[in-house]
Write a structure and sequence with these properties.
Helices cover 37% and strands 24% of the residues. It is of the alpha+beta class. It has a domain of 107 residues: Immunoglobulin-like. The strands form two sheets. Strands 6-3-2-1-9 form a five-stranded antiparallel beta sheet, with no helix packed on it. It has a four-stranded antiparallel beta sheet with strand order 5-4-7-8, with no helix packed on it. A hairpin with a 6-residue loop joins strand 4 and strand 5. Helix 1 packs across helix 3 and helix 2 crosses helix 3. The longest helix is centred in the middle third of the chain and has 30 residues. It starts with 5 loop residues before the first helix and ends with a strand. About 5% of the residues have low confidence.
Length: 244
Amino acid sequence: MNYLKEERLNALAAEYVVGTLRGKARTRYQKLMMQYQAVSDATAQWEQYLTGFAETLPPVTPPDNVWESIQIKLGHKAANDAHVVSDTQPSSKSGQVIDFEKEKQKRWKSLSFISTAAAMVLAVLLFVMQPVPAPVVSHIAVVNNADNTPLWVIEVSGDSMNVKVTDAFIALSDKDYELWMVPANGEAPISLGLLPEANGDTRPTPDILLSQSIAALAVSLEAPGGSVTGAPTEVLYIAPIVSV
């Protein structure tokens, strides 16, 4: 079994952190954490998610008998010291008869509720953690400067145009950079908007970019706000746009 497959690894890491991965499976997972960094990273990520999720929940005080049961199992308290009535003691201090079957049913219901709640939390988190499908890039263009150093990387898909700014780009405080589409039919360039000057941005793909044949993309230097004439003022760079 390939434990490093993303979907399976996320499921195992979530179960491990929640505590529903038990016995030999838990021991095997602990060995995997020591062998593979990816397993350790996935576990740490789930611990962060669950910690953040737990902090949003209001605290709930458990019944006294739950704490007593935990203390007995941990060996911190002897069973005969707990306020537990044995089968030979059919009544409580108040003289009321205790129905042991009902008590057992209540405990099983509590455990069932906890298990169901944990499973629901796990299901929700697994749904949230599902990777968002990346848009299929159909065209790409890299805008280089005179030294052939990339300044912008433009990825075009059917729904979005992702523009990334490289570390080589240096912005000017009194100028903006505008992106243009150069039609293959020789018509005038068409503005695609201002280019980002830090990090990058994602914008809807202009319909015209997908509906016409493109000779290239161009970048012009403009006054703040972009061209006021509807045409490039000073073309700095030309970048071919390639179908992928």
